[in-house]
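Hi R.,

Here are the chain sequences for the assembly we discussed:
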Amino acid sequence: MVDTEDNRKNANSPGPPPEEEVLDLKPEEEQVFLEVLLSGDKLRVRELIEELHPADAADMLEHLSPDDRAMVVNILRDNFDPDLLAELDETVRDHVVDVLGLEDLAAVIVELDSDDALEVLEELDEGEQKQVLDAIPAGDRTLIEEGLSYPEDSAGRLMQREVVTVPTFWNVGQTIDFLRHKTETEKAVMPGVFYDIFVVDPTHRPVGSIPLSRLLTTDRPVPVTDLMDAEMKVLPVSVDQEDVAFVFRQRDLVSAPVVDDGGRLIGIITIDDVVDVIHEEHEEDIMLLGGVKEDDLYEASLYTMRARFSWLVVNLATAILASVVIGLFDATLQQMVALAILMPIVASMGGNAGTQTLTVAVRALAMKELTPANASRVIGKELLVGCFNGILFAVLIGGVAWGWFGDPTLGVVIGLAMVVNMIVAGLAGTTIPLALDRFGIDPAVASGVFLTTITDVVGFFVFLGLAGLIMF
Amino acid sequence: MVDTEDNRKNANSPGPPPEEEVLDLKPEEEQVFLEVLLSGDKLRVRELIEELHPADAADMLEHLSPDDRAMVVNILRDNFDPDLLAELDETVRDHVVDVLGLEDLAAVIVELDSDDALEVLEELDEGEQKQVLDAIPAGDRTLIEEGLSYPEDSAGRLMQREVVTVPTFWNVGQTIDFLRHKTETEKAVMPGVFYDIFVVDPTHRPVGSIPLSRLLTTDRPVPVTDLMDAEMKVLPVSVDQEDVAFVFRQRDLVSAPVVDDGGRLIGIITIDDVVDVIHEEHEEDIMLLGGVKEDDLYEASLYTMRARFSWLVVNLATAILASVVIGLFDATLQQMVALAILMPIVASMGGNAGTQTLTVAVRALAMKELTPANASRVIGKELLVGCFNGILFAVLIGGVAWGWFGDPTLGVVIGLAMVVNMIVAGLAGTTIPLALDRFGIDPAVASGVFLTTITDVVGFFVFLGLAGLIMF
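And here is the predicted structure of the full complex:
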């Protein structure tokens, strides 16, 4: 079907949707929904939710206050959409599960794909899991229990068990006929949508993958072994989801086979689940860098307070450490109040320059772009950048200090301290994440607090120390 | 093909690859490559690169120093793999393009898909673009020129032009026959791999999409209109790539049609390009929050220095502002050196608590989870969290200050200042990103600097001001 000029000229209907309509849930709609909910018209509430795509309905539920949300869940209870549950944010899902209760939850879970069911269940505690599993038919239960036996965040938790496989001796025609004419049992183990089929040997080991578009564009007599990619990526069931995401991105995959310890095909991971993993991993990085353990937008205030408290305690300790360093120089400070006024500048500039370096290094480590092969070159570069920028800012702040307090020596002292702290910042910003990574600690977790401790301590110590040495 | 117990027990071959082999490029391999490169064995260098998947070869090139990289590019020049060029990081690609020269570049670009060619070309300046385009055959040139005419970061830049379409009056059998038996011209405009086919009306407007797996599992006589999803998402050509990524994630899409202003189908966007966009957008957020304009891991030192300098200048200005605030209280400071020692603690705790709130808010805005509908509830919650944690830390630091300097009034002063600054931090951490977003500014850009300016100024002002009022 190739375009002809004629076709194109025929166009006279309304055109594409306006850009804002690409995104579905609009603030006005949420406003209308809230009003209907307040009016108590349960039937209309149910209608409004059911008109939405499950992903949008999930967004709507997320934006509600906990009380309003419980009200909506109770209205939807008799006929709760399983896909809505799968689409919810983790915190909100916990809340919805609480409101639903374990019995109604079991009824909803039965209707989910094995990977989605697993995602909901893994958040429950063991007693609750058992209660829900007991209410689920044996077949589904076994699959879910197997899934729960794999380590958290592993390929085994991500995969779906429904896979389309063909033996090595089939051809295109046999494959298509098999797909068209399945028994009811076969239909039950077929995935809803799939993108590749896998060729397996008699021991059920995957030997090749065939994208559906290739199958569809090939004549019936061609053997599947002539069509398949034998160099496909095979994922062991226990591999970490972060590595799964890396491989999918590196190879532009839409699905990949998962194998057990014996190398046998036991499931596939599809791109939609990987996209969610990519988002999760990014979120984790961004939250940890910001000093938050996890996204707590939908958490209750008390939970949020406690979660953030522990991080702030660490920061209090490091801030007190910095104050102890300042305290070493109380005699010097007493002699000249200008030092107290200027000292936060050196520490702050070091902290900011170090954070810039740190951000690039943490991200590069996560993307596997910073490796032992180029680590020394990256550190060398950051030292150079710190040195250059240190000299520039030394001149700037030296001039400001001289002008402000009319004392050229004060300008020299703050300038020297600035150069030292900016170089230290460049060094610490690269070596701290590298060292944490070497010890198997996620560099995003603790890099920031180490860094600012170092730049604060060095900043105050060098500035006040030099002042004591040179000025008095 | 359902597993039988027999099959499973037959297993006796080596099993799955060990986990570390899931990722391809290993440090040892890079070391070997570097040694071969140093030995000057050009033939072996070429062999080693050609053995790698283009994505891994790209990683290898990225990790090399610029001089080594230029050497490798010159060795590969006669037979440069177009896919390797497409896989490279932007900064490294610029460098490789420089080394290749425009003439050799044109030869490589001709072999790329239209969307990849566009990605390489959009980074060149206009003069260079023209030179390369002139060296490319007319057909490809027109497609690329059209692509360049769409706004940067729009759906038009992301899409590939090669789409499979069928008319509304066809059935499954006709569609499969069409896919199998194409003329050479038709083959040229077929995508390499595809996941959905699109049903179009006579004016070439998309009316529905059919996943290939559904086409394959349906009998030949079924009309395509019975199979298609009529409620598919249609993307206008000028919609922003961030919104494209949002829709793909929300709807678990693998491909989506792009339409022009007349609503006619002109291309499709596939999930692999969307995954790259998701990474780009995340990278942008994380970098901006860290005070870096863009990922500069592979940039030269001088460029990096200049790029980071401008951000540090802003920070210098805000640090000086904070110092001016401290300067207002020089008489107070002169009376009691303990104030100078303790004052950074209040500012630092406010900065850290504010950054926690800010991180959650910026992320929630990017994910469209923070909306006008729940903004006031989120602000209220952050005020509450700030107030609670403020009181806790007031008690902690008040005790420390009393114990350290033996002055209970000093403890009360720093405690009060802590409560005020933590509440201000919670307020500023939510309202700053919301306000920037309202004015159409990416909240990740400037939120951090505004926040720490506020928490520094308030921290110093309230602590020293209260000390002056209460203690002297």
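Confidence is low (pLDDT under 50) at residues 1-20 of chain B. Chain B has three domains: 21-153, 165-289, 301-471.

Let me know if anything looks off.

Best,
T.
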